Amino acid sequence: MGDRECSVDDFSRTIDELLGEVETGIGSRLPQALSQSLQLGKRRVKEGAAQFKGSGDYARGWSARRDPDGRGSYTGHIYNKDLPGLPHLLEKGHAKVGGGRVAGRAHIAPAAEDAFEDFERRVRKAVDESL
Questions:
Q1: 44 in Cβ contact with 110 (< 8 Å)
Q2: What SS3 string covers 84-118?
Q3: pTM for the predicted model, two decimal places
């Protein structure tokens, strides 16, 4: 781009066109990036859930899904489909029947952090490649 004079309307239109090109370039990659990051998060939380001894149902019950939010975007969810109330109790701790407390064991928060960082990296890469 060379130096040239342009009106405010031309400048605004040019910026809108550039942003539209970037959005088009990354927009098609975001659903796939979200799915890949969700799968990473699911793997990480399953690895963390393996610390809990038992039948293995808790670790096997983790699932991930990508849902449209109705505005052209998606939201991602990682959840335990088999034992939906248990993750909160294990992550945050809970009261014991006879008194006292069971300490929580963080295994979801680290997995979520890994998934968020992975998604951010994928989005940054898509933006860099579309410029």
A1: yes
A2: CCHHHHHHHEEECCCCCEEECCCCCHHHHHHHHHH
A3: 0.79
